[in-house]
Amino acid sequence: MKRLVLLLWTVCLYPALFAQDMPDMWTKSGGHNAAHPGLKWFTSAKFGLFIHWGLYSKLGGRWKDSSYYGSGEWLMNRAKAPAAEYAEVAKTFNPQGFNAEEWAGIAREAGVKYLVITAKHHEGFSMYDSKVTDFDIVDASPYGKDPMKALAKACRDKGIPFGFYYSQFLDWHEPNGGGNSWDFKTKEKDYQQYYRTKSIPQLKELLTNYGQLGLVWFDMPGGLTPEQTKQMIDSLRLLQPNCLFSSRVGHGLGDYRDFGDSEVPPVPIAGAWESIYTHNDSWGYIQHDLNFKSPKEIIHLLSNVASKGGNLMLNVGPDGDGKWPQYSVDYLKATGKWLQQYGESIYGTTYGLLPAQPWGVTTSKPGKLFLHVWEMPANRQLRLPGVDAHVKSVKILGTHQTLQFQQQPGETTVQLPVTLPDTRNTVLVMEYSGNQSDLSQLRTQTVSSQYPQAEIPTIWAVYNGAAKNKLFTWSHYFGDWKHDNLAYGMITPEDALVFPLDIQDVGDYKIILDYACEKSGASQQGVVTLNGQRLPFLTLFTGEYDSHQPLLFIQHAIGNLHVDKPGKHNLAIKPVAGNKKELFRLRKVILQPVK
Ligand code: GLC
């Protein structure tokens, strides 16, 4: 009887569920100023280099006798270092190891297509020759030269668009700048005066003295109304109409969209946008932080961001001598080497036409689909659900090695060789003619026993009743933000999440729920169902949510399900009747083939 009810429920309700409104994030778009001439180079660049360099680089995460972890460029604020005392650091800042050609050379070898460096960060120190203040590298440090002049030129010589990061509101050195309340009374601050006498004149210097800039990367807006922001932008635009302004200029007035620090949107986003990531766990140099992302992690990040249609700007934090951490040099060069072979699948592409697959992600160009193979299927059959355009050829990108493929209605299967040349990410290029529909937001997710497991983020579920999905933010080290879309608000059995799955292989699957659960949600009952099978579970406490703390997740194995027929199945997760609070905040459901 239960089976019959479920069957009816599945057959009758499934199309209706699909008609539901998509959660918010499916409709968000990227850039605000689609007509801007600079967007042409920006949207095809795909890979940029961010450099955080300032007095904090000299301090390397140490103030007095304490070591700090996380955003090194926030050291002054975290230590509440008095402005006058902190300014003394400039007297010992002498980056003799800085070599503009070398920096631009590594950038080019890394394959980045633009470079953005901090002209002035929140600490207030100008890393260029400013006439607006003496608190700059030329006047206040023994170095006495303008490294930005040299770097702008070196980048330009190597064909790399050059841009400045500029923190327009925060300035812990200036009484009227935003943020420093340990030296200066917030009540007495005159932000307008700060903008008038430092921020805007400095932005004008940067837009006048360093040649054509690719972009100005504003950060942390504050103290200005939308009208005042617009006035500021208009006056700056006159100087360089082709220069892009990042969205952190505030009030939705930027030319392209920046996501939060370390955030990749879960689905493709139209327009011009950028994801930004640290290489270790800090933007500014920290001598004791050696947690650098490996070449494989960078390559996956880059291809993942490109598969959603955006740019990745990866950060490097040189030290106080002007040297980059050796791991950054090595791992960026390794990424560049990968790009030499597979760059066509990144530069100039748009988002992939397929959503993420158990084997990897896709990017596209007209008539070409690039298959980024991160994970080799055990049977070497790479299945492309929904790919039904006329496929002309499949090759390993950058080689003449063609691969066999088969086309059935609604699916193409590529036969992979015994080994792939790059186990981190071998890219295949599929050339096709005719129309290939855009399936990138198709909710049906592939599950297959050819891979260690299928991880399905809750973004792909159909939401019922009060169940919702939103972006949650938390942090590991200070400023080391993490973001993910989580399902929440599930209290009654009506608040079900339904995952439409395409399960390709029969067999048993272990179901694992990846969630965070507060005390109030713990010890409540839920159930996972599939084809009349039920897996009841009790929620487990993981921790209370606080955006400035790590959000603790558990991977809770709740039981096994059997699939006796390949094809479309609905997996539902819901609370049982009688719960008073939301069950949990669910990040993903994992299906692990039982071996
Ligand atoms: C945040 C931080 C800042 C960092 C920036 C990079 O705004 O405050 O320190 O430079 O992110 O995205």
Automatic annotation (TrEMBL):
InterPro entries assigned: FUC_metazoa-typ (IPR016286), GH (IPR017853), Glyco_hydro_29 (IPR000933), Glyco_hydro_29_N (IPR057739), Glyco_hydro_b (IPR013780)
Q: What does the UniProt keyword field contain? A: Glycosidase, Hydrolase, Signal
Q: What is its EC number?
A: 3.2.1.51
Sorted alphabetically, the Gene Ontology cellular component annotations on this record are: lysosome
Q: Residues in domain Glycoside hydrolase family 29 N-terminal?
A: 34-344
Question: Which terms in the Gene Ontology molecular function aspect does this entry carry?
Answer: alpha-L-fucosidase activity
Annotated Pfam families: Alpha_L_fucos (PF01120)
What Gene3D superfamilies does the record point to?
A: Glycosidases, Golgi alpha-mannosidase II
Q: Which GO terms describe its biological process?
A: fucose metabolic process; glycoside catabolic process
Q: Which residues cross the membrane?
A: none
Q: Which residues form the signal peptide?
A: 1-19
> What functional role does this protein have?
Alpha-L-fucosidase is responsible for hydrolyzing the alpha-1,6-linked fucose joined to the reducing-end N-acetylglucosamine of the carbohydrate moieties of glycoproteins.
- PANTHER family, A to Z: ALPHA-L-FUCOSIDASE, ALPHA-L-FUCOSIDASE-RELATED
Protein family = Belongs to the glycosyl hydrolase 29 family.
Stated name of the protein: alpha-L-fucosidase
Q: Which organism is it from?
A: Chitinophaga eiseniae
Q: What is the lineage of its organism?
A: Bacteria, Pseudomonadati, Bacteroidota, Chitinophagia, Chitinophagales
